[in-house]
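Next up, a chain.

===
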Amino acid sequence: MQTIRMWVPRRQGRADLHFRNPDIKASSIVHISVSEATDTSPGVLGGSGIQNFKAHFGSASITLQNVSVNDGVIDFYVFVDFPHPLNVVADITILDGPPTIILGT
């Protein structure tokens, strides 16, 4: 299992996002969460890669849409429903596959 935090600055409306990593397989299971992020310093990452932002529970609606997993890449949309651009943070967790597949009813 591996989790990556992706900083996505100044997005509004539908944002087409991609995460590339050769360890991703078409059979990988992924979980993604998205939220508004506040920048608390001039740089997003401080010394030693420490994040200088935090998740913010504001009034904007931020939703994750259309996640697609293929060999080497995860494609997804984030929709920011707000009158001006916002910073977004996406946490992407990649789980090993292949999954057990069942037929749903």
